[in-house]
Amino acid sequence: MTDEAERRRQHGTAYGFLAYLLWGVFPLYFAALRPAGPWEIVAHRIVWTLVLCLAVLLLTRDLRWMVQLARTPRRLGGVVMAGLLITTNWGIYTYAVLTGHVTEAALGYFLNPLVTVALGVLILRERLRGLQWTAVGIGAVAAVYLSVDYGSPPWISLALACSFASYSLLKNRLGVSLSPLRSLVGETATVLPLALLILWWLDQSGQTTWGGHGGLHTVLLMSTGLATAVPLLLFAAAASRVPLSTVGLLQFLTPFLQLLTGVLLLGEHVPASRWVGFALVWVALVVLSVDMVRQVRRTRAQRRARARDAREERPDLADPASC
């Protein structure tokens, strides 16, 4: 690896760490937005994220793609669906934080990779390797155990995992047609009417906290756009610089920090029996991570072997003097 490639990898790892670190402390941020409720917070998040991202696009004069998007019904429909799914995910997560269920939210994001793999099998007809089947099986056992322990399925966890996994699946089907910034603009713009309707209804019913709880509260609500866009852009910068395996392993930092935040800082109580369920999920994630790392190493070895075979078949390619 060259010095430039190594620096690029190190910077990418740092960007990824910062992105998942910020996502991991989101419970503290959303808790600071009280007395605003989940609906108001999500609506402001949509509005201010769109305002911030549009400002960036205006400064960079990058708006022509919107016309092309509007002229492509299939892609536009996919963006609308993505906007609805991510808004649902935001709403459930905000509700979980404000009602004292941060640990359940953390469980949802621990379960997310397993649900994503399961959707790949059910929807995309992907074939799983042995360790992947093992991880999904352990995850299913954990879900059943936690359902029995809770007395009902952990709906918040499952809803978060399924909504974000469905969002990821939809993005996979659409392909990399939009940059992260453009995608965020498109998704928030499609649900902007819903956000404005929510804010209007809250204002008419006297339930809004906008402008009535001091300047700091107003600034915090406006900063939801910054809190949404910054980690996303850091993640995009990381994904383009480091291997997928590194990104995959870093993603577990977020729910781990959320779990610590809920237990240590927000005072949530997790019974000993529930830690058993979490442990089962972690075992499944370890198995999944081992499989991911093994597959990345296998792929690299195959690429090196193909390159070596190509050099042996065409010696002139390896000899600069022959050019």
From TrEMBL:
Bias (Basic and acidic residues) ranges: 307-317
Domain EamA: 13-146, 158-289
Membrane topology summary: Multi-pass membrane protein
Alphabetical list of SUPFAM superfamilies matching this protein: Multidrug resistance efflux transporter EmrE (SSF103481)
Region feature (Disordered): 303-323
InterPro entries named in the record: AA-Vitamin_Transporters, EamA_dom, EmrE-like, RarD
Predominant localisation class: membrane
Keywords in alphabetical order: Cell membrane, Membrane, Transmembrane, Transmembrane helix, Transport
Compartment list: Cell membrane
Pfam families linked: EamA (PF00892)
A GO cellular-component term linked to this record: plasma membrane
Residues passing through the membrane, by range: 12-30, 42-59, 79-100, 106-124, 131-148, 154-170, 182-202, 214-235, 247-266, 272-293
Stored NCBIfam families: rarD
Family membership: Belongs to the EamA transporter family.
PANTHER family: EAMA DOMAIN-CONTAINING PROTEIN, INNER MEMBRANE TRANSPORTER
Protein name: EamA domain-containing protein
